[in-house]
Amino acid sequence: MATNRTFTMIKPDAVADHHIGGILSMIEQGGFRIVELQKVALSAERAGEFYAVHRERPFYHDLVRYMSSGSIVAAVLEKDNAVADFRTLIGATNPANAADGTIRKKYAKSIEANAVHGSDSDENAQIEAEFFFGK
Ligand code: GDP
Question: What's the CA gap between 115 and 97, in Å, rounded?
Answer without folding.
Answer: 14
